[in-house]
Design brief:
By secondary structure, this protein is an all-alpha fold. It contains 13 helices and no strands. The protein is globular and about 65 Å long. It starts with a helix and ends with a helix.
Amino acid sequence: MKTARQAFSSLNNFFRSTIGSISSAEKKAIAAAAPILILASSLPVTLILLKQAPGQRFSGLELSSSDDLAVYFSYIYQASSGNFYLKNLYTLDEGAGTINLVWQAMGVFAKIFGLSPQHAFHVFRIILIPLLVFVFYFSVSFFIKNRAERITALFLALFGSGVGAWLYPFLKIESWSISGKFSAPLDLSVPEFSPFWSSLYSPHFILSWICLAASVVLLIKTFEDSSLKKAVLAGTIGFFYFHFHPYYAPFLATFAFGLFIYSWAQKSELKRPLLALIV
């Protein structure tokens, strides 16, 4: 119990010192960024709902990875129906199902408030956007000390993308495709490419960006301070992260190992960095 209190106190001081360095102008920028991102990412769905003809119903599917969206909606529906193990209903593979707390939470939310899977999906997407903005700014503040540069970095991170839209007319040739079909650039075909497109697409991608940014900062602080307390928190976030979106586990494992090697070389100490890496 004492160790847990010390860990909480240490982390609380770390968060307070970082947040305390944020000026009132920066807080206004954060407060502006969240509603702008919510409005911009909700505009396509809103226009579709406003323009749908009588007797028609918006399925919630979109051009990019629509098959994945169908699976996500089915997860929410299964969770709202009381199922704990969620199955992919769009495959012939008879599996036992998976435990996914993110889709479970959306399903329970849909059940309580009488929402369809599509509505619960977008409500969670909107709810998570302010947290995304805060965590991104917290992460930016950890690396950048100049306040004007922090605000610029935040807006670039949230609203920036690639150059695929400009290159698209020149790339639409069969020779660029491995499969024989044309493949668009990543920033036009992979919703996970940027925080902005993730905000348009799915709440679990938004949560993925939140966990990724938090994990990077906490891993750096873990090896910078040789702190097992921060290692425990980073490991807890990682455990939650990888249970619903495991694709970044290799990256964060490699990143943590690189930090371990650097910390070992800098401090000529093996025990605490190694324990932090194991945790």
